[in-house]
Design a protein that fits this description.
With 264 residues, this protein is an alpha/beta fold. The chain is 39% helix and 17% strand. The longest helix has 16 residues, at 247-262. The N and C termini lie far apart (33 Å).
Length: 264
């Protein structure tokens, strides 16, 4: 159902990527994560090698993640979601199912419970921006994804080098289907999980980028009070993809949080 690349040894860590990409985006930090984790780099439905009969949606991702988690022989799984992947992870854990109880902790990298700006939720993407990407998508897929990647890196230290690295990682696997991209944008625009965050029992770490233009770091402060047990780390100088631009800082934050979580 899901294409998953496994690597490393240690406690299991499931990694969920963002919109328009695939599990290959973790390539540059996997060697470091592999020192402490058995990593499961997932291609979400309709992305990369996960071109199954199931289309991308939150409900279908719940089902696919249930299958993956049930196959992992551990009750101490860490789940890490970046951007859209974080939204998928939050939706999944809010179910409190038999399988989600096998997950010990949740790490959200530059993610938001509600990606689309509303009167009561200001630290998010303006709806006109998401509508613009949706309109452009059918006209020119490559140009739209390139523009989105550039926006993700905008504001980060060493912007050009980081953007080049991100684009190279994207080219390592199949491009997402148009349906998956379209449905992903709908999820980003229409999903509001703020009312479900209290249902998540796991310890949560929100990792934000100081210069993130898609998920302002202030969104983490807004979300913190909705969770039962959450903490925030903001990486200075980072944009929306700190695993590209600030690898050492991100690995340090992840490792420290995991060590804390193991001793609770």
């Amino acid at each position: 159902m899901l294409s998953v690349v496994e690597s490393g040894s240690g406690e299991p860590l499931v990694l969920l990527h963002g919109w328009g990409l695939h599990g290959g985006v973790w390539k540059s930090i996997l060697p470091h994560l592999n020192e402490n984790f058995h990593c499961y780099a997932v291609d979400m439905l309709g992305h990369g090698e996960s071109q199954s009969s199931l289309s991308f949606s939150l409900d279908n991702m719940n089902l696919a993640l249930d299958n993956l988690v049930s196959s992992i022989e551990s009750n101490n799984i860490a789940l890490l979601g970046w951007s859209l992947g974080g939204l998928v992870a939050m939706q999944y854990l809010s179910q409190n199912s038999k399988q989600t109880k096998k997950i010990n902790s949740l790490m959200l990298v530059c993610s938001n419970a509600c990606f689309c700006q509303k009167e009561e939720w200001r630290y998010a993407i303006e709806p006109e921006v998401l509508d613009g990407f949706a309109d452009q998508l059918e006209k020119d897929y490559k140009k739209t994804v390139d523009k989105f990647m550039a926006l993700q890196m905008f504001g980060a230290d060493d912007y050009k080098t980081s953007l080049k690295e991100l684009k190279e990682s994207v080219g390592s696997r199949l491009i997402p289907s148009l349906d998956a991209l379209t449905e992903g944008l709908k999820v980003l625009k229409n999903t509001d999980l703020t009312g479900k965050l209290k249902l998540i029992q796991q310890k949560v770490l929100m990792i934000n980028g100081e210069h993130d233009r898609l998920v302002p770091y202030q969104a983490g402060e807004s979300m913190k009070s909705y969770f039962n047990n959450a903490q925030i780390k903001t990486i200075k100088g980072a944009g929306h993809a700190p695993f590209i631009s600030h690898k050492k800082e991100l690995i340090k934050v992840i490792t420290e949080f995991n060590n804390e979580s193991q001793h609770v």
